[in-house]
Amino acid sequence: AQTVTQSQPEMSVQEAETVTLSCTYDTSESDYYLFWYKQPPSRQMILVIRQEAYKQQNATENRFSVNFQKAAKSFSLKISDSQLGDAAMYFCAYYYSGGGADGLTFGKGTHLIIQP
Amino acid sequence: DAGVTQSPTHLIKTRGQQVTLRCSPISGHKSVSWYQQVLGQGPQFIFQYYEKEERGRGNFPDRFSARQFPNYSSELNVNALLLGDSALYLCASSLGNRVEGEKLFFGSGTQLSVL
User: Fold this and answer.
1) Which of B27-31, B42-46, B100-104 has the lowest mean pLDDT?
2) Could you read off the pLDDT of B60-115 as tens digits, one per residue?
3) Which of A47, A107, B61, B101 lies 20 to 30 A from A94 at CA?
């Protein structure tokens, strides 16, 4: 079974600084998708960024970018110019369509605190 | 366009009771998935439905069941509630097109408390 590990329960960063959240995963598949979701206190999960494993180029969405290392099975999220609104739980997730279960596998999350 | 809507937002039940949670997907989305999020954990996959058929099921007991209606809305049913079923239940909708890598759009969830 696939597993997703987020080793940082909590991270803190000064406003306007850059922070990197770590994620590793375990899979024997070669074609899959990886995601970062944000969950603010409202508890609605919001998609931040998505990466296709077959693409070597790292995905970027405005201030959010990833460092995807396929061989190392590592998928970190970099947030540049951190803003107070970025404070939330961040979840890394894995998806493989051929596995039969057809659901996302989430990590336990990283609580991101933004210091003003 | 309305996002994913879930009802009710909060629910309190006692052990042994049964509960039904409801979800309406984004217009044009044909797939609905259900996730359970226990406090302090990431969401866990329960079911996915696509075009009214069950496409996938996570590692949950048979007390959990779901269905999808012709208008693509969905219900999640949990029978014989246990204290451990207390959680936030998240519904997510998607196109259901696996080529898109299952880009999910989540509702705000139903918080279920079992006493």
Assistant:
1) B100-104
2) 999 999 999 999 999 999 999 999 999 999 999 998 776 665 789 999 999 999 99
3) B61
CATH number of the domain bearing residue B12: 2.60.40.10
How many domains does chain B contain in total?
1
Residues of B with CB under 8 A from a CB of A: 33, 35, 40-46, 48, 55-58, 88, 90, 92, 98, 101-109
DSSP-derived 3-state class of residue A96 = coil
Which SS3 state, helix, strand or coil, does residue A35 take? Answer: strand
Evaluate the omega torsion of the peptide bond into residue A40 and state whether it is cis, within 30 degrees of 0. Answer: no
CB contact under 8 A, A44 and B108: yes
Residue ranges making up the domain that contains B58: 5-100
Residue B115 lies in a domain: no
Is residue B113 situated within a structural domain? no
At B114 the pLDDT is 97
Looking at residue B101, its pLDDT comes to: 59
Give residue A1's identity as a one-letter amino acid code. Answer: A
Whether B109 is in a domain gets the answer: no
In a domain, B108, yes or no: no
Give the pLDDT confidence of A3-48 residue by residue, as tens digits.
999 999 999 999 999 999 999 999 988 888 999 999 999 899 999 9
Of B102, B107, B109, Cβ closest to residue A33: B102
Per the CB < 8 A criterion, the answer to whether A24 and A7 are in contact is: yes
Helix, strand counts (H, E) of chain A = 0, 12
In chain A the domains, ranked by start, together with CATH numbers, are: 3-115 (2.60.40.10)
What's the mean pLDDT when you consider all of chain B? 93
